[in-house]
Design brief:
Length: about 70
């Protein structure tokens, strides 16, 4: 379940997963690998900055184009 109020410029884990085309487990794996950083929320419902999501998204799009 996504929170109703989120700071501007941030995404929930569900939104990040949709943007990147991966599962929630994939989002957790990106965090574990240090490729994505949490920037707020609660431990079970983290938020991610839009700018931080742009880097993994660009890498995925770059691989898809190659």
């Amino acid at each position: 379940m996504e929170p109703h109020i989120i700071r501007p410029g941030h995404l929930t884990a569900h939104q990040v997963a949709r943007q990147l085309g991966i599962s929630l487990g994939g989002v957790r794996l990106l965090v574990h690998r240090g490729q994505l950083k949490r920037s707020g929320g609660r431990p079970r419902q983290p938020w991610y900055a839009v700018d931080d999501v742009a880097a993994p998204l660009a890498r995925r799009q770059g691989r898809a184009a190659a």
